[in-house]
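Quick one: structure for this chain?
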Amino acid sequence: MGSSKIMNSYEGSSNPGNSFDVVLIGSGHNGLITAAYLARAGYRVCVLERQQSIGGAVCTETMFRSDRFPGGFRIDVGSSVHIMIHQTGILEELELDRYGLEYVEMDPIMSYPMPDGNGVIHFFQDVDRTLESIARVAPEDVENYRRFVDYWGKVNRSVFKAFMKPPTGRGMGWELLKSRIRGEKMFGETGQIDGIRSVLSSYGKVVEDSFENPWLKTAMIWFAAQSGPTPDMTATADFAGWQAMLHQSGAKHPKGGSGALTQALAKLIEEHGGVIRTGEPVASIEIEEGRARGVLTRSNEWIKADLVVSNAHVQTTMLQLVGREHLKDSMLQSVENINIGNGFGMVIRCAVEELPRYTASPEDPFIHNGMQLLAPSRQYLEDAIADYYRKQPPEQPAVLAMTFSKIDPDVAPSGGHTLFAWAQWHPYELRDGGSWDEIREREADKIYEVVCRYAPNMEGKLIERYIQTPLDIERRHGMLRGNVMHLEMTLDQMFMFRPTPELSRYETPIKNLYLSSASCHPGGGVFGAAGYNAAHVILDRFGAKR
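Got it. Here's what it folds into:
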């Protein structure tokens, strides 16, 4: 970072600098957003990060240096594509461009190379350009897609308002009521009852009902699956419906890698007097008479704070850092019963000699601008899900490929290219006591083979790779059982139920202890809403310091 305030050690506990207004545990983007808002409001903030680098799952590191590639490759070790945060206003409000954050547009946002090798469906930010692309492959669905985007755009303008505030227990139903009072038609001509029914449907059924072309349907379903639930899960329809919002804000990649976001946040925090300490894991939250008083680090250093905010996983926070002895039996049981699920996916982050040339369109000028959806059919997805339910990695993984070096040469300064390939569904807990450490190389090979199947030129073009299995994700990022959303994104764990009804407003039974991670409403992804909401809960309660 080039700043004296980000350090790997700290002077002894007698140092008067060991007292802060706020200690924040973890430097994920939600935590840093909370810290940024509080620092701007005059709070003396200290952020403690257990890793040697900041950013949590929004972090970029230089890897694979060699004589041939002395500059190495800038590799994201967590989230790469930034979509939701561009609809929140957080970036503009914090003026993060002043701290070096620069975004590169991904347009098309994503592309679906046809499995029969005849063309590509491009999803541009501009709806009309998207319709032109769909017309070349699925003319029967041009008007269907237009109606779909219009319908779900209306729905999500109301849903998004519920995301940017603490849940009240009224959630989407309250937004429906308010839209009626204002005379709006949230569901257009469909009607409120049919509209609510569609929202409570599964995203697999909504896509099947809305479109005719099997390839367009597969593309839509595979992208919707990135939120986690399987296509048949009840009340997941809006994971597909959110496609409409892509046409408003698009998708973007931070120049130099995903971690540019958290680096900019760190600079803002520093400028406002905050301190960020890396390589500093927290052992426990210190509690006296039911009130958080600070934290104890694993190096046995006591850091006093008036407020403690945890950006760690909710179970890590409550069961380990707080400790069972400080929780009532009902709260203990509620936290223990949170559904984390059995893993999510895995990813290989590769340095490669050249970009994939997809058989479907070898010289396509757009396909590497955004995500590439590599899943040939709905049945292919279902087969991968069936393997997941059998607690085994998919025999044929569905892949989401990303080639950011095409739009951002800074991530490959010495030449070559980056290729990230995310795949689902990969169970954390394997059948018959299987070990991820034993099969990680084999499963990584299978993912790369999918890319080669679509782009045969990639055979033999791998320079090096960084593998993250569900177990690796848990170890590196503290995302329990490898769930990159922290908790399952199902209706019983959304809005006022996330992470539990008692903890849903970012407050805990421990006075002055708050939560700000993706375990909280509205959930995972590079969104920032949880961090934003947590900061404003604190500011509403205690006010600004200046």
